[in-house]
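Page 42, continued from yesterday. The earlier attempt failed because a stray header line got pasted into the input along with the sequence. Redoing it now with the clean sequence only.
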Amino acid sequence: MTDRVESRAASLLPEERRVGSDDVEAQAEEILLESDERTADTTAAPDSFVEHRTSVEAAGAGQEPPD
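This time it went through. Structure tokens are written below.
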């Protein structure tokens, strides 16, 4: 098992914990595989949209922050 899977298994979201699993590592591995697929193919999840912007673009460079 990889450190990535162990780390994800240790930090399951509350809704992921509620589902329950006899093998949280296997559950975490499946979650990560699905996430990797969606990252590689932005059309893998219905109605999903992956936006690729830099932090400066996301923050609205040159704009004053709201009061």
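Notes: Residues 3-45 form one domain.
Reminder to self: strip header lines before submitting.
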